[in-house]
Design goal:
The protein contains 9 helices and 8 strands. By secondary structure, the chain is of the alpha/beta class. Helix 3 crosses helix 6 and helix 4 packs across helix 6. The longest helix has 18 residues. It is globular, with a radius of gyration of 19 Å. It starts with 15 loop residues before the first strand and ends with a helix.
């Protein structure tokens, strides 16, 4: 359950690493950093994307701590050093995104409510963004505001997404959901040659994450299973319903990647039109992993983040509670 450190990735000081257990018995690896400020602005909970892990966000954690927040992040079941449903630890498998709801419930009850100063905010990427939106539309989100990076609302390079959804669902019903997707394997996407990657245009950050994936071993999973894809399509279909965005009452800011070749930025734009307390900002030239991008792109992200979190009225409430002027 400990954190892996490499020469190019230092763990921020003060990390408290723990294992908590979801209600269905699944163990999850969690890291918590107390705020360094005597008057914290609240807590940021980072919800990672598919195939990610705690260590990948150390740079982001350091930046959030410097802003005056406490920080929580964790490995979803099926990746990092959390629970695996399959013996083949490199398989990225989940049968239903409802299992991720159990993970988030455990984080809320065991970490956010026990250890973390309020208000609680969500910072979510890709698959984590889809989960955050799904929780919010169901009215079970623990967050007062959310910032989402390239949320998974649609996938690029699928000529017939509806057909793919039906096919993967059918194969799952036939008992084939635990197989790799066609052509899939155990190689982590973070360890492929930089020139072939769709994640970031920053070679230094890409190399750093490749080193981390190697250090983590089975913690850095490979391609998804058919079952994971079927489950992802079920969630994306629900989020694409006309009322999905309207049902979200939590102020939500989405940062989309203008050069994203993994998730569909057009689907993100359409979704953002229904948000009442936020909206969508597209960052030109950014690839999928905005927080792993070049400094110029990341600076745009942080400018938008700082303008939205914690929000003027929440900042005033925090100052009033702490006696700050």
């Amino acid at each position: 359950m400990q954190l892996a450190q490499t020469a190019t990735n230092t763990i921020p000081e003060g990390a408290q690493v723990m294992r908590i257990t979801a209600r269905d018995g699944a163990p999850l690896r969690v890291a918590f950093w107390p705020a360094r400020s005597e008057e914290p602005l609240g807590t940021i909970c980072i919800l990672q994307g598919r195939a990610e892990f705690i260590e990948k966000y150390c740079e982001t954690v350091e930046e959030l701590l410097a802003r005056g927040f406490a920080v929580v992040t964790f490995d979803w079941r099926g990746q990092g050093r959390s629970y695996r449903a399959l013996r083949q630890a490199k398989k990225g498998h989940i049968g239903s995104f409802r299992h991720f709801h159990r993970d988030m419930q455990a984080i809320r009850e065991r970490v956010l409510e026990r250890l973390c100063p309020r208000p609680h905010f969500g910072l979510a990427h890709s698959m984590g963004g889809a989960i955050a939106l799904d929780l919010a539309r169901r009215g079970i989100s623990p967050f007062e505001r959310m910032v989402l990076s390239a949320p998974m609302l649609g996938l690029v390079r699928l000529g017939a997404p509806r057909r793919t959804a039906i096919l993967t669902q059918t194969l799952s019903w036939m008992g084939l959901g635990r197989l790799w997707i066609p052509g899939g394997g155990a190689t982590s996407q973070s360890t492929r040659p930089f020139d072939c990657n769709l994640l970031t245009s920053d070679p230094a950050r890409y190399a750093r994450n490749a080193d981390l994936a190697a250090a983590l071993g089975d913690g850095a999973i490979g391609e998804p299973t058919i079952g994971w894809v079927a489950a992802a399509f079920r969630v994306m279909t629900q989020l694409q319903e006309p009322r999905a965005a309207l049902d979200i009452r939590i102020p939500t800011l989405i940062l989309a990647a203008g050069a994203d070749e993994i998730v569909d930025t057009r689907a993100t734009e359409r979704f953002g039109q229904g948000l009442k307390g936020g909206g969508v900002i597209i960052l030109p030239g950014a690839r999928h992993e905005i927080l792993m991008e070049r400094d110029a792109i990341r600076e745009q992200f942080w400018a938008a983040f700082d303008n939205f979190i914690p929000g003027t009225h929440l900042r005033e409430e925090v100052q009033k509670e702490t006696g700050a002027s």
